[in-house]
Amino acid sequence: MQINEFEFNGYQATVIVPEKPNGKWIWKTEFLYAFDQAERALLDDGYTRVYYGISDKYGSYNAVRLMRKFYHYVTEAYSLEKKAVLFGFSRGGLYAFNFALFYPEYVDKIYLDAPVLDMRTWPPKGSVERGQVYDEYGLNADTYETFKGNPIDNLAEFFSLNIPLYIVAGCADEVVPYDKNSGKLLAYCKENGIDVPHILKPDGLHHPHSLDDVSPIKTFVKEK
User: Fold this and answer.
1) CB-CB neighbours of 140 under 10 Å
2) 13, 86, 176, 201: which has the fewest Cβ within 10 Å?
3) What's the angle, vertex CA 80, arms to CA 78 and CA 86, rounded to 5?
4) Would you identify the CATH topology of the domain 2-222?
């Protein structure tokens, strides 16, 4: 295994190359080393792990454009396949969803874990993060509530892309409310006959992410 840390376009990046890379890759959009048991298992199977640290941009249009530039660099520099598997944990769900919405041709599959899909539910009012979202999206307290650029507002467009999706979430999530994020997405899928594999933790909070047994996540990532 080789860990490469470098700066790209003003932001820190990390690429973890396995001993025997197979060209496939996991792009974790936030929190590279947090609850990474599935990624470590996939690394052992030849998957390269990739991270681009644009943490203050919350999946904004600017973030997506930066991700596109980084995508082109990393696929060429590390001989990676043209489609990535995106892992979006918590606020990382904003990046994964919006990148796929804008550039579906670059995305193979998406695994979302307790994702933020509606920024009206997180970040909380008065928080530093909420102020950063205002700045990044050009919003204020009034326009924030009517903003239609949240993932949850664009489910029809997203599912028209036919990108395989996997969800893990805690039903008692105290940080990113399940019923207004993952639960709302799954309710949409049920109403529209869309099959999205998922694992729900009935008493699960926001942490810990992932699963004790990551074999379902591995199966989703590796199956054709």
Assistant:
1) 9
2) 201
3) 115
4) Rossmann fold (3.40.50)
